[in-house]
UniProtKB/TrEMBL annotation:
Protein name from the UniProt record: D-alanine aminotransferase
GO CC annotation: cytosol
NCBIfam families to which the protein is assigned, alphabetical: D_amino_aminoT (TIGR01121)
Class of the enzyme per the UniProt entry, highest EC level: transferase
Organism: Cohnella abietis
UniProt-listed GO biological process terms: amino acid biosynthetic process; carboxylic acid biosynthetic process; D-amino acid metabolic process
InterPro entries found in the cross-reference section: Aminotrans_IV, Aminotrans_IV_CS, Aminotransferase-like, BCAT-like_C, BCAT-like_N, Class-IV_PLP-Dep_Aminotrnsfr, D_amino_transT
Length: 277
């Protein structure tokens, strides 16, 4: 494991930031989680596109270009000596005396490179359980903001109930997971919430949509209700760290579909794994 902070490579546990850093005090920043497979970043262009979009959405002026991020990421991979990594990348509005209005200082750029948090194979093979939770987040969930308190609180309730993920519900519809996108399969078609300010535009979602098109599986971007999730033929989550994770139980007792990972879910999962080889 290794880290990068404002031009310097350092150990992950090295004390590095002054107390008055805006990410630390305000959560005033944005982030990305990027997966490295066999030394190669997966969909890095899409991650950087989203990083610039998030920065712009919070009026954070990011002068570093794509080549800069690509270079640091490749240096982190080399220095780590690892092939399968999670890169965490964070940009904040910098280091300045605490004051809500924007400071006039350089942004802080930090990254960590750590061995990939591989999901237990058993969970992937058998499928996961999810827990419904009210979506208590703000109205700019398309921004990959550092402010994750509602996400953390929801996911902890899920974990307290032995579920892998919290599925967030707003105005009667499922938006997404606390740190993933969610999909159902009905009569051979995939359904997931459309890209609005209510969900994060997942990079794995882009990959799954492309795969669905390739495999001629209809991909409908329409929201669904908790009831429709309960009655779906199949359900699954996606994220950079989970990849395609089958969902087979709801609130620990209701079985979704056959109670086993569905055939379309498995086809998507296999195709995605093939892309990462
Ligand atoms: N989370 N929705 C939310 C709220 C997320 O936090 C994430 C990712 C996703 C899936 O996006 P992607 O496919 O680009 O990983 C959807 C990351 C992994 C995290 O916070 O650790």
């Amino acid at each position: 494991s290794i880290a990068y902070l404002n031009g310097v490579f350092l150990a992950l546990d090295e004390p590095a930031l002054p107390i008055e850093e805006r990410g630390h005090q305000f959560g005033d920043g944005v982030y990305e989680v990027i997966r490295i497979y066999g030394g190669k970043p997966f969909m890095l262009d899409e991650h950087l596109d989203r990083l610039y979009r998030s920065a712009e959405a919070i009026r954070l002026q990011l002068d570093s270009d794509r080549a800069f991020f690509q270079t640091i990421i490749h240096q982190l991979i080399d220095r780590s000596g690892l092939a399968d990594l999670d890169i965490y990348l964070q940009v904040t509005r910098g280091i300045a005396p605490r004051n809500h209005t924007f400071p006039n200082c350089p942004v802080s750029i930090s990254m960590t490179a750590k061995p990939s948090r591989a999901t237990p194979v058993e969970l992937k093979e058998n499928g996961a359980a999810v827990w419904m939770h009210p979506d208590e987040r703000w109205l700019n969930c398309h921004i990959k903001s550092l402010n994750l308190l509602p996400n953390i609180l929801a996911k902890q309730v899920a974990a307290d109930n032995d579920c892998l993920e919290a599925v967030l519900v707003r105005d009667g519809y499922v938006t997404e997971g606390s740190s993933s996108n969610i999909y159902i399969v009905e009569k051979g078609a995939i359904r997931t919430a459309p890209l609005t300010n209510q969900i994060l535009a997942g990079i794995t979602r882009i990959a799954v949509k492309r795969i669905a098109q390739e495999l001629d599986i209809p991909f409908h971007e329409q929201p669904f209700t908790p009831e429709e999730l309960r009655n779906a033929d199949e359900a699954f989550l996606t994220s950079t760290t989970l990849e395609v994770m089958p969902v087979v139980r709801y609130h620990d007792d209701t079985v979704i579909g056959s109670g086993k990972p569905g055939t379309i879910t498995q086809a998507l999962s296999e195709r995605l794994s093939a892309l990462t080889l």
